[in-house]
Amino acid sequence: MNKNSSNIMALAPNASNKRETVCIFGTGDFGRALGHKLIQSGYPVVFGSRSTQTSSLIPKDAEVLSHAEAAQKAAIIIIAIQRQHYNFLIPLAEILRGKVLVDISNNLKINQYPESNAEYLAQLVPGAKVVKAFNTVSAWALQSGTLDASRQVFVCGDDMEAKQMVMDIVRALGLTPLDQGSLLAAQEIENYPLQLFPMWKFPILLSLGLIAFFFFYCLIRDVIYPYVYENKDYSFFIAISIANRICPISALILLALVYLPGVLAAIIQLYRGTKYRRFPDWLDKWMLCRKQLGLVALAFASLHVLYTLVIPIRSFVRWRISSQIVSQALKNKTEPLDTTNAWLSDSYLALGILGFFLFVLLGITSLPSVSNNVNWREFRFVQSKLGYLTLVLCTAHTMVYGGKWFLSPSSYRWYLPNAYMLSLFIPCTVLVIKFVLIFPCLDKPLTRIRQGWERNPQYSEQSNYIINKSAV
Prior knowledge:
Layout: H1 3-11, E1 22-25, H2 29-40, E2 45-48, E3 63-65, H3 67-72, E4 76-79, E5 100-103, H4 117-124, E6 129-132, H5 139-143, E7 152-157, H6 160-172, E8 176-179, H7 186-191, H8 201-229, H9 243-272, H10 281-288, H11 290-309, H12 315-331, H13 339-365, H14 368-371, H15 376-402, H16 419-423, H17 425-437, H18 440-450, H19 457-471
Helix pairs in contact: 8-9, 9-11, 9-15, 9-17, 11-13, 13-15
């Protein structure tokens, strides 16, 4: 049997478990891919098109009819056509009465129209049951068997029975339906595929800001200052040395910013005496992007490790080591081992290794495939307890590295402290506040508040009354 015949047989529906016919208006890339997947899942498919001529691109087991004829053969009609072409449905309003219309369209811009495409479709065909679905799945994902793409399909609609019929089709295709409620959610669902890394915007912009600030800061201290006062050209520091300062500094600050909103939230709850009042919007958004901040911090920490590994092969480092050896040979004197510096050096490296190990562990447990396999207590233990331990180790790693230079006047060039000193401000602030919050006099009332206790229940009742009254 040849290859083509085997493909045809793969598309043939199983006669023993025959499903209801599904109609697809539109023979574009997505319509054809969805029809192909439906036939593989055992659904008879009929295409409604302006041209009833068959094409080699259309699945062989599918019929191609006019829109009116195709609509009469199925109770579920998938509208695989862009919004601007919906007007052809108006003459078919009587035929489409009582049918389930599945709107799969997307727009070119977020909130491009006052109403969603699905709501607009419901206005054009008021007698039909409109359901929004499949707009977050691409034709490529359907053709590749959804193995390398998201399996989630957002579904919304006002008719529960129609929505259930569409969700059954979604499951039959090997996808996961997520019920988003009524058709009012359609605009949010349509905006979702148009968002470009919405939760990554703030972390990336913040990271770029940190990189720019510390790059120019280190450039002034480590390149311009020696050139002006010592007539030494250290411009080559830009490639490795300055980069290897920016990466760990950014990683430490971003890691601290992951845990700073948590302590701020605790302070606000203690001040208000309740957990039933919303946090400020800026704090809500900050807390929602903590995972992304942590992953960016991990990326910077990984770059710091790589930059550190190449230090021994740098020409400048080899030149400095050979110069010291020659200098000792000429003086006929060997420098004794400074055990204090040896302890500091080994402690600095040990703290860095342990901190990076826990950093990687935090990153691994944030992956959905891992976090879905642990319970809430285990996840909280890793992300909170081990997270703070990671912050402590990384902060100690930085302090041991340059603690001896804190009070050295020579380390302040143009009255500017070393960059790593600036990086310690936020982490130390977070750790001090967290240390204060674990005192029993604050931890016990905070735990009670998070379990539902309120210092002033009357205020909460007034707030709920105002909220409920405004919702009526």
